[in-house]
Amino acid sequence: MDLPVIQPRRADLGPPVFPTIGIVGLGLIGGSIALAARDRWPSTLVIGVDRADVLETAMRMHAIDVGASDLNVLAGADVVILAAPVKQNVALLAQLAEYLERPAVVTDTGSTKREILAAAAVLPERLTFVGGHPLGGAAVGGLAHARPDLFRKRPWILTPEPGTSATAVDALSSFVAALGSTPSVMPADEHDRVLAFLSHLPQLTAGALMGVVGKAVGADGLALAGRGLIDTTRLASSPSGIWRDITASNADQIGPALDALIAVLQSLRDDLPAAGRLEEVFADAAAWREQLTTRSTL
Amino acid sequence: MDLPVIQPRRADLGPPVFPTIGIVGLGLIGGSIALAARDRWPSTLVIGVDRADVLETAMRMHAIDVGASDLNVLAGADVVILAAPVKQNVALLAQLAEYLERPAVVTDTGSTKREILAAAAVLPERLTFVGGHPLGGAAVGGLAHARPDLFRKRPWILTPEPGTSATAVDALSSFVAALGSTPSVMPADEHDRVLAFLSHLPQLTAGALMGVVGKAVGADGLALAGRGLIDTTRLASSPSGIWRDITASNADQIGPALDALIAVLQSLRDDLPAAGRLEEVFADAAAWREQLTTRSTL
Fold first, then answer.
1. Is the whole model's pTM more than 0.80, yes or no?
2. How close B91 gets to chain A, by Cα (Å)?
3. Nearest chain A residue to B231, by CA
């Protein structure tokens, strides 16, 4: 027998920014948005779109109120959040107008922003698109790792096109702030440039490094590895599918980032064994690392 | 008033492998060897050589019994452990014969092994040199972070020259095993090649990456950083002095390691935006990363 769950009363929650929330893709990010929204506004209706087995898990986690595997269910949503991989979000965007008849704010949670912003040009006027990117900070993906505090004190970048309704941007900003995040607004091209360095370059570097080291020393050699290699290659267990999309949609920014890193590595290589360049690179790195640990909220 | 410290009796400790231990350089490694040896064999005499202020700290930590700032104090040692930076160890080695009149085993704890092994050729026959490298695994250096369990279940590589007395190698191996480590024997050139990939390449990569990212996005951009950049650049706060020595003494192995990484990064760059190469690199990386987490004792 299932006992009824008694919800504790929460004081002063304020009215929901969006009474009905639609989330397409219930992975780590989509699932955490659902949990955070329900936590913040118990009266909000949370609609999830995903495969049947994912929806069942989301129901069991009390992450969503309604779930379906097609977009019909989103008809009454005040906000639709596309939380699938980048390329899928772009494809979904083209289908939304058919299902959303009422005015709504549409956003996404993808790691690159120019491509989806360009794709959003097809939306009819009643649907206002504001690109979004929550920088959650969890290492492991999937609904099973979703949690309502994933966004607490973490940045959430919004990338509206110039001329986007300020009402929509403000509403979305209030919404993501209420989920615990620290929203900021940035042009899409600046977002994609900054993220190429902050996220995409470290990801490619960790993958390249892990392969080079593994191939050179073999499994027995890896048994001798210290904390340094373990930390430096932690990203190397990320699934390649998500990263193929991200890389493809941000290639023009990732290219120069890779060039910059290759140039520094080549300068260290050319300076061996004198290693004067090394002191320069290390002093620079230590100073930036200090800034990183001071500034990051992780 | 200082109260006398009552040492608890330890059961079945066995006789010390080396009744008198000399340690030159009381940083994280030297200090941890001192603490581990005293913990293992309370009757062993531990002699430390370092600056006066470091010796005072080591005394307060009960890491050493006797301390001095010159090598005279090592006269009665059965084993001398050089735990200073690589270049200093090489310089110290040339002076040891003058101070050590009795037969003794001499070892070091440096991260590269060929240079010190070559330098050890100057030692008289009564002093048997066996290169050593404990892979401790702590992120922060300095005596303040020393602890007796630093080496527990961690690899400790010994690199004797061919023809070195098996008695000396066995004694040193028993000694480091008694400190909690897992000793293994490897030729010095193989050690230096493997460590160029396992340790030196990740270190240079983390430094190069941190500088490139910091310069591109600035301090405000770093505030947006996620766990990925933080993990990938953790090594970038390492002091450059130690790494200048390591790089200079292993340049011929680090060069090809850098070349291999640059080649993979360049192949990823050349394949943008198609990103077919990316899937290959990521699949490879994920497989090696799995081996790394399975094999490492950290």
1. yes
2. 19
3. A231
